[in-house]
Amino acid sequence: MCLGIPGEIVEMPVDRPDLAQVDVSGVRRAVNIGLLEGEELAPGDWILIHVGFALSKIDEVEAKAALDFLESIGQAYEDEMAALRESMIDKG
Amino acid sequence: MSTDDRTEVAPHAGDRAVPVPHAGDRAPSREEQVLDRIERARRRKAKVREELITLAHGAGGKATRTLVEDVFLDAFRNPLLEPLADGAVAGELAFTTDSYVVTPLFFPGGDIGDLAVNGTVNDLAMCGARPAYLSAGFILEEGFPLTDLRRITASMAAAARAAGVAVVTGDTKVVQKGKADGCYITTAGVGTVDPSLRLSASAARPGDAVLVSGPVGDHGVTVMLARGGFEIEADLTSDTAPLHGLTARLLETCPGARVRCLRDATRGGVATVLNEIAEASGVAVVLTEDQVPVRPAVRGCCELLGIDPLYSACEGRMIAVVDRDAADAALSALRSHPLGTGAAVIGRVAADPPGLVLLRTAFGGTRIVDVLVGDPLPRIC
Amino acid sequence: MRFVDEYRDAGTARALAAEVAALCEPGRRYKFMEVCGGHTHTIYKHGLEDHLPEAVTLVHGPGCPVCVIPMGRVDDAIHIAGQPDVIMTSFGDMTRVPGGRGSFQDAAARGADIRVVYSPLDALKIARDNPDRRVVFMAIGFETTAPSTAMTLLRAEAEGVANFSVFCNHVTIIPAIKAILESPDLRLDGFIGPGHVSTVIGCRPYGFIAEQYGKPLVVAGFEPLDVLQAVHACLRQLAEGRAEVENQYSRVVPWDGNPKALAVIGQTMELRPHFEWRGLGFISHSALRLRERYAAFDAERIFDVPGGRVADPKACQCGEVLKGVLKPWECKVFGTACTPETPIGTCMVSSEGACAAYYNFGRFSRERVREATRR
Q: What average pLDDT is seen over chain C?
């Protein structure tokens, strides 16, 4: 029920301003964008799809920041593990 | 890979207590006690409680199994039926039957006629047989267009030619408008099998490798989209195909008892087949999520609709359980065949916990892949 | 898949898990509730708990809209489905929920025309395509889904699709969280906040949880790394002595929510004075019904629903599971009398229900599973 999937807008038909053609991993569906009235939407934007409606526009800046943070934790962890391994080798 | 059995696992006996191993032999926690009780309840003989047939009974999952055991096996019981395998093998003869009620009748990649031939050819192939002859029974609805019927029979003829089998006998019935949804087809098939072959769902052993012949879930998702109502466009086709050439290649390459079991993953998908094998053999099947091949479009549809590709039907894919030392040869054999180019090793067999299919998720966690309950995709084949 | 795969990376998970473990005070145990059924599903589907230290327990909350529908409402819906010329449309999960006399699926076996749809717009299309039938949409869901029902109603009105109606069972999340907080049996350290509900209502409504109850709430996305990061953020708040509302899901959730979505809900629906929640009892101002103006599309008014209260079976402990007081396996009938094929209660029916998730995904002793899946 909470099922919301990110999809990329690939087309915005001129004759139907309330709809956008959205791509999810190569699969396409028309999605109603009426709930995002007032937002600037264009092909290439990503939106969250829920039961055939777009609920939110995905903020790519925030997404990148979130991923960068996660990656930094990952990197710090990798560095730490590498250091640990190194020090064990030294003990040989 | 652990092959040490710290306990004997009782064969699936009614209420007999199943001795359970516990790490370090400490007393089981309350949670473990509850889970053990549940396992015992699950092993009890299944009984159909409903008074009316529901769609779940046709899904290929738990309800189907219960129905088959409680009603059909109970009524017809005999040694050839007991294994409830894809087909019955008596000496050199393999015999099978299947019915086709797919809706819609025509879908990207094929139609009910293709399924009717390939499905039965495949059931014979899974017994290790060379398919020879098919019968075809048609139940047609009053008002069904002849052009559609000719289209279906043309597909069947082409599929039969491609599979090297002949449709040698058949039957036709017509029922009033409103009953039969256009066309239902039942095919039965006979083939010849080497009597020394011992392919069986109960033959899997700890350490064995589990292979799939290609990406999973194509047919189920294709048919679901073809039904309309989801307004999804995807470049997907059914994977319906005859697998006897593929099975022959595999059995040539891995002779003796190194191939334990072959099963085509139809209704209920790969997950259902693996659960059957785990239960019949009293072993665990451990899958690795990121080794299971799934086409991106299938994955996309499944994410959108909240379905698990492991449960989506295939009509041209098989699972092979082989001795671990034969795994590499088996994989090369499958990949050398046009229908097996996408083959992969997706898991292995473990001793414990018996009867369960487990998944190492891509996220690094674990979960159970349970028997299908209900019917997410009715009338899929 | 973009915005999905990155949040399922096992390597990052291990790293984040190490940080989570490091934030746990030695000797202290933590209980966080994930409110949303979608989060419960994610946790089990990806085996997230394998990355959590022993000290951290996740408690499953009542945010599964299918799970909280009382049996009486299911009976009402089946009553409607049994009326002449009715096509009942519903999301898939709903079709297996047992009422007093069976589920939608059972009703279908007895001849009712029940169809599964992906979107309320699909239901509207069925209505357009079948002008001589009365098409009813079983509307369920929290504030996530209510806007979609609302938009569909507005469209039905604009296009004059007179044979379409909605049986409205939308519920709101804040009263459910309040009920949890007031529950005497439960001690929680923080919340993994609803993700998609928050895209509609924003993050402000959760303020009282931090201010009045002193618990952190972190709004989380639905990929496993999102949930793990939210656990991390809760622990960090506790370690720093803070209690705040945080938005981990900022790529999707705007702090102020979706004004248009809130507007269309307000236009078409109003709060019921009270509504019965399965397991939680009657809660005031916790559910939505159609406004008078939309009476012509209100299935409750069009069809004379019995509106009876059906008591949950004595054996059913869904209420306590929904409140997080009991773990699924602690329910007396879990896995024996109540299983996915023979569900007694709703927690076992929905793929997001705590019991279904645990039964389907986590049912085995985690130790044995870990043994078996170790490389």
A: 91
Summarised one tens digit per residue, pLDDT across range C302-346 is: 998 888 888 888 888 888 888 888 889 899 999 888 988 788 888
Detail the DSSP E strand segments found in chain B: 88-90, 93-100, 106-107, 110-111, 130-141, 166-175, 183-192, 209-212, 232-234, 259-264, 284-288, 318-322, 344-350, 357-360, 366-368
CB contact under 8 A, B35 and C329: yes
> By CA distance, what is C342's nearest residue in B?
B49
For residue B52 the two structure tokens come to 């009316």
Facing A70 at nearest CB: one of C194, C225, C350: C225
Summarised one tens digit per residue, pLDDT across range B247-262 is 999 999 998 789 999 9
The least confident of A20-24, A37-41, A71-75, C338-342 is A71-75
What is the spatial distance between Cα B272 and Cα C358, in angstroms, rounded to a whole number? 19
The 8-class DSSP code of residue C298 comes to: B
Give the helix/strand (H/E) hosting C115: strand C113-116
C158 alpha carbon, distance to own chain's centre: 30
Q: Beta strands B183-192 and B93-100: pairing type?
A: antiparallel
Q: For residue A49, what is the nearest residue in chain B, using CA coordinates?
A: B304
Residues of chain B positioned with their CB less than 8 A from the CB of C368 = 21, 23, 352-353
Among C326, C367, C316, C375, smallest CA distance to B36 is for C367
Give contacts of B 201-230 with A, CB under 8 A: 230
Q: What's the token pair of residue B95?
A: 């015999």
C33: closest CA among C330, C175, C223, C234?
Answer: C234
Q: Which helix (H) or strand (E) holds C225?
A: helix C224-239
Chain C residues in contact with A46 (beta carbon < 8 A): 2-3
With beta carbons less than 8 A apart as the criterion, state whether C361 and B368 touch. Answer: yes
Rounded to the nearest angstrom, the minimum Cα separation between B362 and chain C is 6
CA B96 to chain centre: 14
Task: Sort strands B209-212 and B183-192 into parallel, antiparallel or unpaired.
Answer: unpaired
Give C365's contacts in chain B (Cβ within 8 Å).
Answer: 22, 31-32, 35, 353
Closest CA to B272 of B117, B115, B86, B9: B86
Chains that touch A (3 or more CB pairs under 8 A): B, C
Question: Dihedral (C-alpha) C299, C302, C307, C313: value to the nearest 10 degrees?
Answer: -40
Q: Is the ipTM of this complex over 0.85?
A: yes
Q: Are strands B209-212 and B318-322 parallel, antiparallel or unpaired?
A: antiparallel
What span, in angstroms and rounded, lies between the C-alpha atoms of B27 and B324? 34
B175, B139 in Cβ contact below 8 A? yes
- B165-199 burial, b at 16+ Cβ within 10 Å, e below that, comes to bebeeeeeeeeeeeebebbbbbbbbbbebeeebeb
For CA atoms B103, B107, B113, B115, give the dihedral sign.
negative
Q: How far apart are CA B224 and CA B103, in angstroms?
A: 9
Q: Are A12 and A42 in contact (CB under 8 A)?
A: yes
Residue B126 identity (one-letter amino acid)? M
Question: pTM for the whole thing?
Answer: 0.85
Chain B residue with Cα closest to C365:
B32
Handedness of CA C140, C144, C147, C148 (dihedral sign): negative
List of chain A residues whose C-beta atoms are within 8 Å of the C-beta of residue B297: 25-27
Selected residue of A37, A51, A78, A81 to mutate for chain C interface (largest C Cβ count, 10 A): A51
Residue position matching structure tokens 């069986």: B200
Which helix H or strand E contains C38, and what residues bound it?
Answer: helix C37-45
DSSP letter for each residue of B127-180? TT-EEEEEEEEEEEETT--HHHHHHHHHHHHHHHHHHT-EEEEEEEEEE-TTSS
- Tell the residue number behind the tokens 């990329």, with chain if given: A8
Q: Within a 13 Å sphere around the CA of B166, how many CA atoms are in the beta-carbon half?
A: 2
